[in-house]
C-alpha cells in the first residue's frame, strides 16, 4: 500500500489520478447533456476546487463562463463551525444557470452557506458539482447536489486540491488518513 506523510499525519492511497480523471470525464458528459442550449456559470469554491475545476471544465464543450469565490472553515482535520467568506462573488448572477464546483462536501456547512448567498442573488437555477461527498458526515439537507464524483467514507482525505493544514493540495492522487 502506497503511504505518504503530510506534517504529523500518515496517509494511504485512496483514489488514483486515473480513476479521478475517468470519473470527471463522465461528469463532463452529463453536464454537456443537461446544459445543452444553455450558458452556465461555473462558480469554483477556492481553494480546494482549483484542480477539479480545471479538469472538469476541459470536459465541458458547451458555451460557459467561470468564476471563483473563496471561503474557509477548516482548521486541521475539523470544521471550525464557521464559514468565513474571504472573496465574494464578483459577477452579477441574476438569471444565470449556476453550477457550484466543490472539491468535497463533508458536513455540508460550507455549501449551505454558499447556496444561501447565491440564491439571494436570484439566479435562474443552482446545482452543485462536487468531486467528493461524505454521506455519513452530512449535517445539513442539501437538495441541489446533482453531480457527485465519489461517495466516500467519513475519513479525512488529502490531495488533488484537498489540504491538511495547507499541505498536500499538489498531490495528483487522493489519500486517506490511516488513523483519526
Ligand atoms: O462540508 P464542510 O464540512 O463545510 O467541508 C467542505 C469544505 O471544506 C473545505 O474547505 P476549507 O474550509 O478547508 O477551505 P479550502 O478549500 O481553502 O481548503 C472544502 O474545500 C469545502 O469547501
Ligand atoms: O476530508 C477532508 N480533507 C480535506 N479538506 C476537507 N474539508 C472538509 N473535509 C475535508
TrEMBL record:
One of its GO terms (molecular function) is magnesium ion binding. Pfam families: Pribosyltran. It comes from the Bacteria. The keyword Transferase applies. It is an enzyme of class 2 (transferase). Its EC number is 2.4.2.8. Its main location: cytoplasm. Keywords: Cytoplasm, Glycosyltransferase, Magnesium, Metal-binding, Nucleotide-binding, Purine salvage, Transferase. Pathway: Purine metabolism; IMP biosynthesis via salvage pathway; IMP from hypoxanthine: step 1/1. GO terms for biological process: GMP salvage; guanine salvage; hypoxanthine metabolic process; IMP salvage; purine ribonucleoside salvage. Its cofactor is Mg(2+). It catalyses: IMP + diphosphate = hypoxanthine + 5-phospho-alpha-D-ribose 1-diphosphate; GMP + diphosphate = guanine + 5-phospho-alpha-D-ribose 1-diphosphate. GO terms for cellular component: cytosol. Residues 15-164 form the Phosphoribosyltransferase domain. It is found in: Cytoplasm. PANTHER family: HYPOXANTHINE PHOSPHORIBOSYLTRANSFERASE, HYPOXANTHINE-GUANINE PHOSPHORIBOSYLTRANSFERASE. Belongs to the purine/pyrimidine phosphoribosyltransferase family. This is Hypoxanthine phosphoribosyltransferase. It comes from Pedobacter petrophilus.
